[in-house]
Amino acid sequence: MWPGLRLFRSSYSSLAARGLVYEKHGEPAQVLQLKNVDVAHPADYEVQVKMLAAPINPSDINMVQGTYAFLPPLPAVGGNEGVGVVVDVGRHVTSVRRGDWVVPVEAGLGTWRTEAVFSEASLMRVPSDIPLVGAATVSVNPCTAYRLLSDYETLRPGDSVIQNASNSGVGQAVIQIAASLGITTINIVRDREELPSLVRRLQDLGADHVITEDQLRKPEMKDLFKKCPRPRLAFNCVGGKNTTEMLRHLDYGGSMVTYGGMAKQPVTIPVSALIFKNVKLCGFWITQWKKERAHTDREEITKMIRDLCDLIRRGRLVPPPSTQRPLEDFSRALQDSQTPFLSRKQILIM
């Protein structure tokens, strides 16, 4: 359920409830406004949540722009991810209670607000003994990384995977989850001024090999595979020539999974890769994956969130470097979230 937004007018509303509302699609800086929003008493199967923190992800920006694959009805509150604390529940709610921390398992709920009422089915409880930023960022990028590593090839300790956009939120989660499983990662990044510090940061997370896009194309790449096996899996979030080069190094019968297209260029696959290497090409979208299981196989979502929170608790999965800003400072957060090479997740604190 994606509830429509009512602007502030109800006598039952919380006077403190505010949200980043957009009434038409466009550039976020131009169409988002901080407004009062209604928070009615929760009905039988609803939960009243005080939001604590919510990140700004690329998909959030695309949704406001109107270019995302799923768009909530307008007017809407921005944000698809975050963590909140339950302040009230409807009389038939059984999965959460007052004081629990919860995260959304559905897209389009609108998490860039101080308080809201959501359906019980759209939320999942998370432990409150993990860091706030870890909880606020667990339900999109780490979930994507978890599924990429779990659903396409049977990986064992010592196997390897290769990925581009390795310093993205998903890329960093792949590095850490793979390291916890004993899986080697080959990580491709764009060249930049601060490359040495980026390489060190990814290595500190558990990256085994970090290479630039230029190095990916060099003949010396064959020396890398004297140290580790050719990857069974490739994760693509870029597209264009970068992806074609990455595919060349995939093992026979391996899979390449595309979950993004940062370069806004098509994925070009050589015929020889299909005929002589028998590679498999797949696509993945965490929003669709959750939607298909939210009401039929919720235990699979529960296990995934539980496993990820356990890694967070043990310090094996840390969120990307972030800047935390109050909701009122959303304009600066939006600007920084769209600044190339900044590499800091913007978190709105409520």
TrEMBL record:
Gene3D superfamilies the record matches: Medium-chain alcohol dehydrogenases, catalytic domain, NAD(P)-binding Rossmann-like Domain
Major localisation: mitochondrion
Molecular function GO labels: enoyl-[acyl-carrier-protein] reductase (NADPH) activity
Domain Enoyl reductase (ER): 29-350
Enzyme Commission (EC) number: 1.3.1.104
Any single GO CC term annotated in Swiss-Prot or TrEMBL for this entry: mitochondrion
Listed Pfam families: ADH_N, ADH_zinc_N
CDD domains for this protein: ETR
Residues spanning the membrane: none
Major enzyme class: oxidoreductase
Subcellular localization, as worded in the UniProt entry: Mitochondrion
Listed InterPro entries: ADH-like_C (IPR013149), ADH-like_N (IPR013154), ER (IPR020843), GroES-like_sf (IPR011032), Mito_Enoyl-ACP_Reductase (IPR051034), NAD(P)-bd_dom_sf (IPR036291)
Keywords: Fatty acid biosynthesis, Fatty acid metabolism, Lipid biosynthesis, Lipid metabolism, Mitochondrion, NADP, Oxidoreductase, Transit peptide
The organism's place on the tree of life at top rank: Eukaryota
GO biological process, one term: fatty acid biosynthetic process
Family: Belongs to the zinc-containing alcohol dehydrogenase family. Quinone oxidoreductase subfamily.
The protein's name in its UniProt record: Enoyl-[acyl-carrier-protein] reductase, mitochondrial
Native species: Hymenochirus boettgeri (Congo dwarf clawed frog)
